[in-house]
Specification:
This protein has helices at residues 5-10, 24-47, 56-64, 81-95, 151-175, 177-183, 188-203, 209-220, 239-242, 247-251, 270-278, and strands at 20-21, 52-54, 76-80, 99-102, 115-119, 123-125, 138-146, 230-232, 244-246, 253-258, 262-267, 294-295, 297-299. With 300 residues, the protein is of the alpha+beta class.
């Protein structure tokens, strides 16, 4: 399974009585709320001429299902850093009464390298939110970064991103150690992996979570060439090199229908993107391969 946080939680054998799985009714209600958030984000992006595209399972859902993957409970957006920086200044001017915006630059004790738009008056508390009072239903905004045309610099950029991202993950494991270790106490393999990351995090505990989050964010943003041939989504689930794309193929978009009511942009070369992420993406996964999304508290 390795040391990937995503892989670890995807493999989690959920036997913790404090963790819950969404019912079909809850899932439908959650998807409806998520679409309301997505529509408001899309409004701001259109008003301020900001480019973005759907990422991960949201892009897959748009292409394969023309909406949500039936069992999906989240929504991912990819946005170029220059557009994201403007978005982070204008979004709350438009919708500050309705949403929180959590960012790796400004949100205290955040510990994530991407942004989250969270709806006020709702709760969707997941594993990262045990100490978070602003745990509303959310959409993730992953930052598309420039990377270097000069190959040695590109590899250095990727290496530094991997290192800083891994260390921040371990620091987060230490922060949430009691909750995480209790979650996997029935699974020896996962317990071993979690304890290893907790122990590395313990060695780093003298460094504040905010300092490490800011450092990873700065490393990811270190290439300032907005016309570089390649871009990357280093905070995505596949990390730097496995989420690196040609700018023209990834950042130019086409619109797809979504749930018969909306139109959202997907990468122009969505076929290449989805093959990179999922292989034969038009083939439905087996029941055992469907990721179970767990939560602690829900209010819609």
């Amino acid at each position: 399974m390795g040391l990937s946080t995503v892989s670890a939680f995807k493999s989690l054998n959920n036997k913790n009585k404090n963790l819950k799985k969404l019912s079909d009714k809850q899932l439908k209600q959650l998807q409806k709320t998520i679409l309301e958030i997505a529509d408001d984000i899309n409004f701001v992006c259109q008003k301020y001429h900001l480019n973005y595209n759907l990422g991960g399972g949201s892009a897959l859902g748009a292409v394969r299902h023309h909406g949500f993957i039936p069992w999906d409970d989240d929504f991912d957006i990819n946005m170029l850093r220059k557009d994201y920086e403007k978005f982070s200044t204008v979004f709350l001017k438009e919708f500050g009464d309705k949403y929180w915006l959590h960012t790796p630059e400004k949100t205290k004790n955040y510990g994530l390298g991407f942004a989250r738009v969270r709806k006020k008056g709702t709760i969707y508390r997941a594993r990262e939110d045990m100490e978070n009072e602003e745990a509303g239903v959310y959409i993730d905004i992953f930052i598309i970064e420039n990377t270097y045309n000069f190959v040695p610099l590109r590899y250095l950029h990727g290496f530094l991103s991997y290192v800083f991202g891994f260390l921040l993950s371990c620091r987060n494991f230490y922060k949430n150690k009691d909750f995480y270790l209790d979650m996997v106490k029935e699974d020896k393999e996962l317990s071993k992996t979690f304890k290893f990351k907790v122990n590395i995090g313990r060695l780093l505990s003298w460094i504040s979570l905010d300092t490490m989050t800011h450092a990873w964010n700065k490393v990811n943003a270190m290439c300032k060439n907005n016309k570089s041939r390649y871009v990357t989504v280093p905070t995505g689930r596949n990390h730097f090199f496995k989420e690196m794309y040609e700018r023209d193929k990834f950042c130019k978009t086409i619109l797809f229908d979504f749930e018969k009511k909306y139109k959202f942009p997907v990468a122009k070369d969505y076929d290449g993107y989805l093959k990179n992420m999922y292989g034969n993406y038009m083939e439905l996964p087996s029941k055992n391969d469907i990721e179970a999304h767990i939560f602690v508290d829900l209010k819609l």
